């Protein structure tokens, strides 16, 4: 048997295997689902969600003022996700998981920057996320 015949036999077996593969139908189904989602919401892409969240966060310093205002009004520690939900509600944004994930990361970065300045502090964990509250100043020795 020549090498051309062996290659054809191999390609034929490989094609038959792929056609009978159970994962192929689920991959095709997933592709169709993603295409339908794209038709209904063309901006539902990672880049579109980042653009949306960047627009939603506003000008420099707004997130810091908002985070501090929410933490001051809170009766207990809040997580970055709770603050992100409050931000989305206050700005009239959709509360989808994709939006909240991006907002939570950005609010978390704001909280870490405020922690480095000594303005906020961590206070335990809630639902797998860190609880945050306003840092109380240390007493000044007399």
Give an overview of the whole structure.
The structure is a single chain. The chain is mainly α. The chain folds into two domains: 38 residues, no CATH class; 89 residues, Arc Repressor Mutant, subunit A (Orthogonal Bundle), CATH 1.10.10.10. Helix content is 66%, strand content 11%. The mean pLDDT is 75.
List the main descriptive attributes of the protein structure presented here.
66% helix, 3 strands, 142 residues, mainly alpha, Arc Repressor Mutant, subunit A, 11% strand, single chain, elongated
CATH class of the largest domain: Mainly Alpha
Pick out the low-confidence regions: none
Order of helices and strands: HHHHEHHEE
Which strands sit side by side, in order, in the main sheet? 1-3-2
Shape descriptor reads elongated
What count of helical segments does DSSP give?
Answer: 6
CATH topology of the largest domain: Arc Repressor Mutant, subunit A
Helical amount among residues, as a percent range? 55-70%
């Amino acid at each position: 048997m020549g090498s051309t015949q062996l290659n054809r036999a191999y390609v034929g077996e490989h094609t038959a295997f792929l056609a009978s593969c159970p994962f192929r139908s689920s991959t095709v189904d997933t592709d169709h689902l993603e295409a339908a989602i794209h038709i209904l919401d063309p901006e539902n892409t990672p880049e579109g969600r980042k653009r949306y969240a960047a627009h939603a966060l506003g000008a420099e310093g707004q997130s810091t003022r908002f985070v501090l205002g929410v933490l001051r009004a809170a009766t207990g520690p809040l997580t970055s996700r709770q603050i992100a939900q409050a931000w989305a509600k206050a700005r009239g944004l959709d509360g989808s998981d994709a939006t909240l994930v991006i907002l939570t990361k950005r609010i978390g970065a704001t909280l870490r920057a405020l922690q480095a300045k000594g303005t906020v502090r961590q206070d335990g964990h809630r639902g797998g996320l860190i609880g945050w509250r306003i840092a109380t100043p240390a007493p000044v020795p007399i």
